[in-house]
Write a structure and sequence with these properties.
Length: about 230
């Protein structure tokens, strides 16, 4: 059962971003706010926090829904599934069978960043919880185009749960294989952060920004393609 404090501190409401339906997550205590666009990739198109009494935009926000839908945007936090990165010549082999994907890179040669990037997701539930402002969305094969399903004819349910609390936005993913055979997939996120969040003497421009990644291994790529 939710306590009164969480119900008053957190909220999630359905709204619109330039006529496109969105979910707006708010932490009223910290002043943080995130906007999720279910109909175009479940993309968090905006995320703002408060620092020193000022609103600070964490993400690059796309100009509008049409730019987001065009796949040519560099904004928000696109979800890359089931193929983060590029698939060479838009084809792959799995368990002795070859599959062909749409050629979606700039050169029209390779597939890039998977099938759910701009696909419509279904809202499962949303609202305040003891953990924060939460929204859960899912996507299944019936929401993909016929061409996408032909290149990835597997039965799945992909779920993401966003939670906003303090100045932290968390995404938890769950993949459910609903078929009789193995499910090939990879998962990645492609966040476009404002860099730096705030210009100062220490960080006058992007060249002064440092990002620390606690990675254990690094996979080299040649011209953006995995080397294996």
């Amino acid at each position: 059962m939710q306590n009164t404090e969480s119900l008053s501190r957190y909220s999630v409401e359905a709204g619109h971003w330039q006529h496109e339906p969105v979910l707006i997550l708010r932490d009223h205590q910290s002043g943080a706010e995130a906007t999720i666009c279910p109909g175009i990739g479940a993309n968090p198109v905006a995320w703002a926090i408060r620092q020193g009494g000022q609103r600070v935009e964490v993400l690059e926000t796309p100009p509008g829904p049409e730019e987001l839908r065009s796949r040519k945007f560099k904004a928000g936090i696109p979800i890359l599934w089931p193929f983060p990165g590029r698939v060479r010549e838009a084809k792959y082999e799995f368990e002795g069978r070859q599959y062909h994907l749409p050629r979606t890179d700039k050169g029209g040669v390779h597939h890039i960043h998977g099938l759910v990037l701009v696909a419509p997701w279904q809202i499962v539930e949303y609202g305040p919880t003891a953990h924060g402002a939460e929204a859960t969305l899912e996507i299944t094969p019936d929401r993909l185009s016929e061409e996408d399903r032909a290149g990835y004819p597997f039965h799945f349910n992909l779920t993401v749960r966003y939670t906003l609390t303090e100045n932290r936005l968390t995404a938890v993913f769950e993949v459910d294989n609903r078929g009789e055979f193995a499910l090939p997939f990879g998962l990645g996120l492609h966040p476009y952060f404002q860099a730096p969040l705030r210009v100062s003497e220490e960080t006058p421009d992007r060249t002064a920004l440092q990002v620390h990644l606690p990675t254990a291994t690094r996979w080299p790529a040649e011209e953006g393609l995995p080397t294996g």
